[in-house]
Amino acid sequence: MRRAALAGVLLAACLPCAAPAADTIVIGGKIFTESYVLGEMAAQTIEAASSEPVTRKLGMGSTGILFEALKSGAIDVYPDYTGTLAEAILKKPDLKSIEDIRQALKPMGLTISDSLGFNDTYALAVKEDFAEKHNLHSIGDLIPLEAGLRAGFSYEFMDRKDGYPGLVDSYHLNFSPQNVSRMEHSLSYQAIDQNAVELIDVYSTDAKIKKLNLQLLKDDHNYFPVYQAVWVARTSFVTQHPREWQALLALQGRISAEAMLDMNAQADIQKMPFAKIAARFLGSALPNSPGWLREVVHRTKEHLWLVGVSLLFSVLVGIPLGVTAVRFQAWGQAILLSSALIQTVPSLALLCFLIPVFGVGTKPALAALCLYSLLPVVLNTFTGIRAVNPVHVENARAFGLNPRQVLLRVVLPLASPTLLAGIKTATIVSIGTATLAALVGAGGYGAPIVSGLALNDVPTILTGAIPAALMALVAHGLFEVLGLVLIPAGLRRRP
Amino acid sequence: MLELQNISKTFEDRTVLSDVNLMVPKGATHALIGSSGSGKTTLLRITLGLIPFDKGYVKINDQALLSFTQVEWADRIGYVPQDGGLFPHISGRNNVALIAKLRGWRRARIDDRVEELRKVVDLDPEILSRFPREMSGGQKQRVSIMRAAMMDPAVMLLDEPMAALDPLIRRSLQQELKSIFQRLGKTVLLVTHDLGEAVYLAEQMTMLHEGRVVQSGTPRELLLHPANPFVSQFINAQRTLSDSGEVR
Question: Which of A69, A310, A441, B182 stands 20 to 30 A from B86 (CA)?
């Protein structure tokens, strides 16, 4: 009993309260440079125009996540593009004008601003020297090279109708499938720079076009749709915060393509912080940055909360499930199989499945982490109990222990080394997996990792990756200590 | 007094025990002897209340097993499993005190009882604070006897108490056991395949073969007047194996 209480206290100590503050204006953003810059700009604009506190949830993964977040009220505003809204959200690629799109969004309780002033469309890019060598000017010029050309396209580009599938139709391109790789967008620049691929998809205002000496291929067929940058907001936000919305509307038509490309370059090439870039453009004062130490402390709290809660869940649910699995054969197989199946669902996919149920933010991240940390605990509970010598169980009954006492006094203590190993595995896996939580706006060490990836900025990535690794080390040590407390002395290895 | 009357047990189609009778008077030591497969382990598990039986009854001091729950029955019969059967994760003392603790005994009462039993089995106090893996075979047996006697049961049931011990220790522990039984003054049922052990420790014995009692009586009766060829075969085989039989 004393041991259980001690373990409870230790666990509770791992769970500092990190619940997000309510009643703030939440700005979302996607996981690429331009979206970070625009998101930061929106945040600073509102901060300048109003006294309402602003929360930034920038770098939240793909369009689907952002859109669910907006609908569910987890965020209030985010920057997006007309083409994306028409294609990926409304599924009506023929909607071209901003007014048409605005009308179509209305029934969903959403609205958009007018264009912020630039068109950031998809484009295909090759290296300048490659273009020169093969005399490439437009997309149609790729046809003679199509058989041997190696391409690296982003996931979104590959899957959108107005992306790759429509492109090859429109230009009658016949790339050989084994030469077309799907990759994370920020990595495709690295791939083309290192000559791993010759052709990539880019956004036309991307700073890396300049940095890596890429040449855009002309879209002769006007295949790529128009991607005017706009603010997307919930209608209820617009009516409840008219002043803030007006402030955002003041940016309509003010950001030119060159200005945007410059700002992207400042972020990607000069590694200038997003807040500073936005402040320069807006001519406003730089908001107080929290300083890296406070940032790390803040992220640590978020991360601990994610790991701690999911761990508590996996212990409170996983151990009983494991015990059930031992007791009831048929159920046991079902339980083991389903917890193993969960493990095979890729984490990003699982997060996407959970968004319709839990919305965006900490909840879906916690749900995903809970599910992932279940298997090691269930499996080790099952294996640990099964490995207990049945003679001890029968003896315990013969001595007059009731079934509960047999479980608590004999079976679980004897299985405790295996059980604890399962919880430890779950914890360490959780610390790693929790970095993905940033993609649904749950923060944690994943936030700097994600924004660092977007910027291809290794130091930023490391401010998330190193603390995460340290946390795993600390967890490892903590479990060694916990082992001394929880594993009965008679079972411990002698020093 | 321990009484088994007409005990029968079938597993699926296989008859394991049929009409087994066995009576141990109060304070006596009785050996249940038989080779492996004779049904003696099944009879032991039935006596402990661990598995149901088809026919007959088990009584301790005229109270039937079936009128008690498993937990209540356990307090009437102290069990010493093969090789001691101590729980490896707790110390000797905690093994002995486990049931008393679960029954809510006060600390002082537990300590007094443990000390009393420690003297009966003549164990060094330091041994009790060791974990089972740190004890010798004989020490484990003594701790296990203390555990079985802790709740002061009417009957003690020992399963092959010497099987895992080497011959030298066996001899000395046999003598030790005999005096422990005398000091405890309990009704004892000893399950064994070792004739010498049975002869040395028990006043009466029952030989089980293929689920039936083939002969009951004093060791002398079994040795001098074997009831059938199996009994004499069993006796002769063991006599040539070891010389430990001490005929009274």
Answer: B182
